[in-house]
Design goal:
Elements: E1 2-3, E2 9-12, E3 15-18, H1 20-32, E4 34-39, E5 42-48, E6 54-60, H2 68-79, E7 89-95, E8 98-104, H3 111-115, H4 129-148, E9 164-166, E10 172-174, H5 179-186, H6 192-195, H7 206-209, H8 214-230, H9 237-240, H10 245-254, H11 264-270, H12 276-289
Protein name: non-specific serine/threonine protein kinase
GO molecular function: ATP binding; protein serine/threonine kinase activity
Keywords: ATP-binding, Cell membrane, Glycoprotein, Kinase, Leucine-rich repeat, Membrane, Nucleotide-binding, Receptor, Repeat, Serine/threonine-protein kinase, Signal, Transferase, Transmembrane, Transmembrane helix
Length: 290
């Protein structure tokens, strides 16, 4: 779907239709929509279309006015990438200097929200070990698809818990793949830190070469798995000071305190009786990550 000032193209049930009314409708919902997220590439709003479909609209960070053709070309490429463990891009548009991306809405939000933000609210939902494994498997499949099945292969460059979304069946979907390359192509004035991942998730070797690789994505995914086991934000200064989750976990292992790294809720769920096998699986998974 591409929206221009003169018309809007919508893809519904595999058929392309044009309706000028949808243009005003989407903008109206966008302005009135509630903010549900904010990341390195822009803000995300929830909106409801005329047919009742819930969507998430990402308003990209303000870029230069150049690169419209490149934006459209890259969006057309990303729109064609479909896989069960990737968040599908439903459409995109340019309104003045604003660039908007329309995604399928994910019922349970991001993994980051599930692990961290909801802890302070009354609707806290503690993920079971089986759910954590399911989320990790889904994210791994999505990342693997980008690395091996897309032509050309796609390096995510910013794999983290906020880019792993959860649908209504708690199936994980990877978000923002290809965004770093798009933003860097449209605006060369952005800093390297904006384009190359998030502190706590970025592999140490990146700071030596400043090159993003598939192996770097895998490292970042490993940090997400540790986050699933530990429940702490990987780059939280209050928890880890000058180090991060990975560095802190290695220190705990050297001190013989590896059990302190696993979140208490997970230990309580898996300890004793019939869950003894699960406890061993949790510990085994953690040791493999370290």
């Amino acid at each position: 779907m591409f929206i221009s000032n003169s018309h809007v193209m919508l893809l519904q049930h595999g058929k392309l239709i044009k309706r000028k009314s949808h243009y005003a409708l989407i903008l109206q919902h966008f302005r009135a929509a509630s903010l549900i997220g904010c990341g390195g590439f822009g803000e995300v709003f929830k909106a409801t279309l005329k047919d009742g479909t819930c969507v998430a609209i990402k308003k990209l960070i303000r870029l230069s006015c150049q690169g419209d053709r490149e934006f459209m070309a890259k969006m057309e490429t990303l729109e064609k990438i479909k896989y069960k463990n990737l968040v599908p891009l439903l459409g995109y548009c340019k309104v003045g200097e604003e660039r908007l991306l329309v995604y399928e809405y994910m019922e349970y939000g991001s993994l980051e929200e599930m692990l961290h933000r909801r802890i302070k609210t009354c609707d806290r939902r503690i993920l079971t070990w089986e759910e954590r494994k399911k989320i990790a498997r889904g994210a791994a499949k999505g990342l693997c698809f980008l690395h091996h099945n897309c032509i050309p292969h796609i390096i995510h460059k910013d794999m983290k818990s906020s880019n792993v979304l959860l649908d209504n069946e708690m199936e994980s979907r990877v978000l923002d793949f290809g965004m770093a390359r798009l933003i860097s192509a449209l605006d060369t004035h952005l800093s390297v830190s904006t384009l190359a991942g998030t502190p706590g998730y970025v592999p140490p070797k990146y700071y030596q070469s400043f090159r993003c690789t598939a192996k770097g994505d895998v490292y970042s995914f490993g940090v997400v798995m540790m986050e699933l086991l530990n429940g702490k934000r990987p780059g939280d200064k209050e928890d880890f000071g000058d180090t991060n989750l990975v560095g802190w976990a290695k220190i705990k292992v050297r001190e013989g305190k590896q059990m302190e790294v696993i979140i208490t809720d997970l230990l309580l769920e898996t300890q004793g009786g019939t869950n003894e096998a699960e406890l061993k699986e949790v510990i085994g998974t953690y040791r493999q990550l370290i």
